[in-house]
Write a structure and sequence with these properties.
2 copies of one chain form a homodimer. With 331 residues, chain A is mainly alpha-helical. The first copy, chain A, has 18 helices and 2 strands. The longest helix of chain A has 28 residues. The first copy, chain A, is globular, with a radius of gyration of 20 Å. The termini of chain A are close together. The interface between A and B is medium-sized, with 35 and 35 residues.
């Protein structure tokens, strides 16, 4: 289902691109590697259009404009956040040993682990320099969200050694995925000078969006259509990812299934026969339906949160279109 | 030669320790790992005294006090800087595959590479949160110094693949070692509200100290006494570190020696016979004396820089004692 890109994601792509390019300007090998990583350039330094959805900076700009501030005034906060997101991807790819992202070789696959650690560290430092142009409060909010995201990464890593229940999974998601999404909404409020109450509502909205977004992603990792999603059916089971379907199965399963699930996820590689058993078990336990219901629930929470914000009717419509797009997205 | 610890390094150890402990407080596995890394706690969470010299935060506090601001007001900037220094060590240890530091297992050796990347990233984010309490300018200066340090790491890494001449080596040192030392001096000035001229002088002083400090360290890596320094004679040659003596040899050598140096540094491991040849060649080329003269020169530059700063006579004396200590230190 190719849907039309929501206006929120399209409205300021060129300004975001120009500002990212500006933040990563310079003739060092690290900066070149970062420009390739974020999709500004190819290996030969030629300009390309490979930046992805730009969800987080687009949200900052959308909220800021809706609350009465120009997109250009909100740009430093938006770019600071996008740089944090991208630095975390550089380090994620090392941690997950992923050799490709967005169809391109990852930084570590191309330049080695040591230089990829440097590249991520540099982008992290640059994110602060940029965010500080939006003021100390924006930078502090971004740094706190970054710390929370990293704690989420650490929890996710711990789940490789043991299986999490749904409540632990949600805590991890609120940090790993939710921290930067909450930050996106809140930064829009901060640059617009919003008070504590509005900022709290923006954060709640971000949390609901983060949960819907991540659970949807996790469902696609097991039941997605490989041709569309880029992941074959069952791929997260083969990768032994302890994503939502595993946590939900674990929470629902009786002792016998739980023991067998643990033993399957302890195998490397997971035999194809076991992959099928896991998917069948998840379906038998109703986890796929649970997940779809959870996504719908968090989306409804997000829509209610939207209603409670002082946005224009047009802005609310655009935000709902974005939510629908994110919920229906197949990649 | 056990020298007495200079007053600058001893004056505020307890406050620095308490503030580091505060910055790294919390009951997550990452924060526990960081407290062990910086020498606040052992593996069982018992308090230990393993924090090292604390050179950088001590310099911030010294400069701030000399320029008329209380140490406690300068503490956030000092701790922010010390956290940056320590995050870089966590990532350095991964990059250099060093399994121990200060006699303790490194974070990656204990918790794996993925979690050590997270631990460094978390400390980086926390450094910003802390530094921001000293204001936007302090945080911006720290973030810029961090970026420069990382560019220096990247240059140092590139020198593993090719040999650098002395001017390239100094450029690398000004970034990798110098950036945070310059930042230490400058942060002291910033929290004291110093103007552009004083800040420029503080930076120059930091640059000279950084060069003296690093060249001295590099000389000890080749000619240090293993019992005192913790590195056996010739250890940096065995580790194929392209430190000052190699750059100076390369700059001084005729083509034949240069070719042989390159070929020796391409071997892994370097045969003991070649280690001896390298050290003899360095001595024959006068590199050890060159290095000692360079250290003296940069120390003289630093002392002249000190004289030009509006410090008390007592403060200047303490700073000279610190320089002497750093220059004479055997570890």
């Amino acid at each position: 289902m190719a849907e039309r890109t929501p206006r929120i994601l399209g409205a300021h792509r060129e300004e975001i691109r120009a500002a990212m390019s500006d933040a990563l300007r310079g003739d060092t090998s690290l900066l070149r590697a970062l420009r390739v990583h974020v999709g500004l350039e190819d290996d030969e330094g030629r300009s390309i259009d490979g930046m992805g959805k730009l969800l987080r900076p687009s949200l900052v700009l959308f909220v800021a404009e809706e609350l009465g501030v120009s997109a250009s005034a909100a740009l430093p906060a938006a770019i600071g956040l996008e740089l944090v997101h991208n630095f975390s991807l550089v380090h994620d790819d090392i941690q997950d040993q992923d050799r490709t992202r967005r169809g391109r070789a990852t930084v570590w696959a191309r330049h080695g682990v040591a230089e990829a650690i440097n590249a991520g560290d540099l982008m992290h430092a640059l994110s602060i320099s940029v965010a500080l142009r939006a003021g100390g409060e924006a930078a502090a909010t971004l740094a706190a969200a970054t710390a929370e995201m990293i704690e989420g990464q650490s929890l996710d890593l711990a789940f490789e050694r043991r299986t999490a229940y749904v409540d632990e999974y949600l805590d991890m998601v609120d940090k790993k995925t939710g921290a930067l999404l909450r930050c996106a909404f809140e930064l829009g409020g901060i640059v617009a000078g919003a008070g504590a109450e509005i900022r709290g509502r923006l954060r709640s909205l971000g949390r609901a969006v983060g949960r819907a977004f991540q659970i949807q992603d996790d469902l696609l990792g097991v039941w997605g259509d490989g041709d569309v999603v880029g992941k074959p059916h069952g791929s997260d089971v083969r990768r032994r990812k302890k994503s939502y379907p595993v946590a939900a199965s674990f929470s629902r399963a009786a002792a016998a299934d739980r023991t067998r699930l643990e033993s399957v996820y302890a195998k490397e590689p997971v035999p194809e026969r076991d992959v099928h058993w896991v998917i069948e078990t998840m379906e038998r336990l109703g986890v796929r339906d649970d997940g779809a219901a959870a996504v719908r629930g968090y989306l409804a929470e997000a829509e209610a949160g939207l209603e409670a914000l002082p946005l224009s009717a047009e802005g609310k419509g655009e935000a709902r279109a974005l939510l629908g797009y994110l919920a229906g997205r197949e990649r």
